[in-house]
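Example for tutorial group B:
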């Protein structure tokens, strides 16, 4: 079945920021935050670190679901990592070691080693390796695909390809309704690893997958307005099938999405959420509860 879009009843959509998520280490668990600074590479410290193998290739839940059990915490000037059966790993946010080159998808980018202790910690817990933890080189500009950003230069750290991922509670509710019809357990938003989760001001103010259909989203911050432009539907790999509490894998989520979320804009791939780029408001603070407006594209 192909992608379906609801017929809008007006040209305007209104929402509130319901959740904000930062994922400091690519493919590990995220941190739910009440506020986050918007930078040119997305929310501050999002995907700033990445686990790589001995050849510098990225490691993700696609091949190692157990990464879902690694829980980061940002505490003052530290990144603290916890995992079942492991002592907490404390790393200074401001420190790194030798420069290196690593691979994130097709991009070879400069990074910094985070040291032998971090390398051993990840190798021991994930039971593969040897592994290393690296920090993105903030002096490097990794461009998002101009095929989708057009005339805008948008930058990433270790994200899959774009600085901000946006979705909505209405989209998750739609999926959970369909899972329920198949006697499957509901899932939560952690599986979709979005940075900004929207909720309609009223039940009809933001409908399921409206984020797919709107143009520039304007966030009222109290300072300069933040403008986020959705540019590419987010194709979904099997990662939403990973239970974030147990790391167990079940195909129910992907199988259900495939029945109604095949999107012709990305050659029929199953999508959930929109990759977005910032147009204005760099340095402003996004907060849960802020108002978001957008018109249909």
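The residue assignment follows.
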């Amino acid at each position: 079945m192909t992608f379906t879009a609801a017929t809008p009843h007006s040209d305007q959509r209104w929402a509130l920021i319901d959740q904000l998520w930062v994922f400091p280490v690519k493919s590990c668990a995220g941190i739910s935050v009440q506020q986050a600074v918007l930078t040119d590479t997305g929310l501050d410290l999002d995907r700033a670190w990445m686990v790589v193998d001995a050849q510098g290739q990225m490691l993700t839940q696609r091949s190692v679901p157990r990464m879902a059990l690694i829980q980061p915490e940002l505490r003052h000037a530290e990144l603290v990592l916890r995992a079942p059966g492991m002592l907490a790993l404390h790393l200074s946010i401001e420190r790194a070691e030798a420069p290196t080159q690593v691979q994130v998808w097709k991009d070879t980018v400069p990074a910094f080693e985070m040291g032998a202790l971090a390398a051993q910690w990840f190798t021991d817990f994930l039971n593969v390796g040897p592994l290393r933890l690296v920090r993105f080189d903030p002096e490097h500009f990794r461009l998002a695909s101009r095929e989708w950003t057009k005339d805008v230069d948008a930058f990433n750290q270790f994200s899959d390809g774009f600085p901000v991922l946006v979705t909505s509670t209405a989209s998750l509710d739609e999926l959970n309704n369909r899972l329920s019809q198949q006697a499957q357990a509901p899932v939560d938003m952690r599986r979709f690893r979005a940075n900004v989760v929207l909720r309609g001001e009223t039940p009809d103010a933001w409908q399921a997958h409206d984020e797919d259909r709107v143009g520039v989203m304007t966030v009222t911050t109290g300072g300069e307005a933040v403008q986020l432009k959705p540019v590419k539907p987010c194709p979904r790999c099997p990662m939403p099938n990973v239970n974030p509490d147990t790391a167990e894998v079940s195909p129910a989520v992907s199988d259900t999405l495939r029945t109604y979320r095949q999107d012709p804009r990305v050659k029929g791939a199953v999508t959930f959420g929109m990759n977005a780029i910032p147009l204005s408001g760099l340095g402003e603070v996004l907060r849960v509860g802020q108002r978001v407006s957008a018109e249909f594209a």
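The radius of gyration is 19 Å. Compare this with the pattern of hydrophobic and polar residues in the output above.
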